[in-house]
């Protein structure tokens, strides 16, 4: 075979190969091609889901092992401050002695020097919210009328003060108060400033609670008299109900 014949054969083979490729390309099924692509996408999605599940399991195992999540210094400081703010301490322990059921005698002086009005009082108190707050409910009489009241008291670890609130059926005011306690936990002194409904002006009252022993305590309230001079307006002497 001479050179010219070889060239013709090469060209013929090239044309045959090109025609075969074109024929194969024309014979590809679009539906099958789409199915192949869909299967590939599903396989990738399945692999991603498996990887995510594996990462989640590893994180759970790590948590079970007691390893805390990584935190920034700012987050760590915030968590430390939060833990300190919500932790019951000695000041909260001081209030526990007043939890329980109590029976008492209330004495109220309408003006200085006048004989007191006496009436029985029943109080139920309990520590709530993991020992942070003392919640108390009171029943009795005042000036011949049924009396109902509710009080809260807690110690704010952040401000280093005792805080309290009082509300009753004798008015629409909530009385807010702050104060301190003696180191031995026997004497609580709280002060409240509020608007007097009689005068429309701000006034101040003081509330002292003296723990006598585990079964006895006394509550006293002081405020300004008609002449503006402070006097004892009310006291309740409590005895634990047996």
How is this structure best described in words?
The chain has 242 residues and is of the alpha+beta class. The protein is built from 4 helices and 10 strands, in the order H-H-H-H-E-E-E-E-E-E-E-E-E-E. It has helices spanning 3-26, 30-64, 73-85, 90-95; strands spanning 100-108, 117-128, 133-142, 145-156, 161-168, 175-181, 187-195, 202-213, 216-224, 230-240. A hairpin with a 5-residue loop joins strand 9 (216-224) and strand 10 (230-240).
Question: Summarize this, please?
Answer:
This protein has 242 residues and is an alpha+beta fold.
List keywords for this structure.
4 helices, 242 residues, alpha+beta, disordered N terminus, 2 domains, 10 strands, ten-stranded antiparallel beta barrel, Lipocalin
Question: Which secondary structure elements does this structure contain, and how are they paired or packed?
Answer:
Layout: H1 3-26, H2 30-64, H3 73-85, H4 90-95, E1 100-108, E2 117-128, E3 133-142, E4 145-156, E5 161-168, E6 175-181, E7 187-195, E8 202-213, E9 216-224, E10 230-240
Antiparallel strand pairs: 1-2, 1-10, 2-3, 3-4, 4-5, 5-6, 6-7, 7-8, 8-9, 9-10
């Amino acid at each position: 075979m001479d050179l010219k014949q070889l060239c013709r054969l090469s060209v013929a083979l090239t044309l045959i190969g090109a025609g075969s490729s074109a024929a194969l390309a024309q014979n590809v099924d679009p539906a099958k091609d789409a199915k192949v692509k869909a299967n590939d996408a599903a396989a990738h999605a399945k692999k991603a889901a498996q990887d995510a599940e594996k990462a989640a399991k590893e994180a759970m195992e790590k948590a079970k092992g007691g390893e805390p999540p990584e935190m920034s210094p700012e987050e760590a400081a915030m968590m430390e401050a939060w833990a300190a703010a919500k932790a019951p301490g000695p000041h909260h322990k001081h209030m526990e002695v007043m939890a329980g059921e109590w029976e008492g005698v209330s004495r109220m002086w309408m003006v200085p020097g006048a004989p007191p009005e006496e009436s029985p009082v029943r109080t139920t108190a309990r520590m709530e919210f993991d020992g942070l707050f003392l919640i108390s409910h009171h029943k009795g009489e005042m000036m011949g009328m049924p009396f109902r009241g509710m009080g809260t008291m807690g110690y704010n670890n952040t401000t280093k003060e005792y805080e309290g609130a009082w509300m009753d059926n004798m008015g629409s005011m909530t009385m807010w108060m702050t104060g301190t306690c003696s180191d031995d936990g026997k004497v609580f002194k709280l002060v409240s400033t509020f608007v007097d409904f009689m005068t429309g002006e701000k006034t101040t009252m003081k509330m002292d609670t003296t723990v006598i022993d585990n079964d006895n305590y006394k509550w006293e309230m002081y405020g300004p008299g008609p002449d503006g001079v402070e006097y004892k307006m009310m006291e309740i002497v409590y005895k634990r109900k047996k």
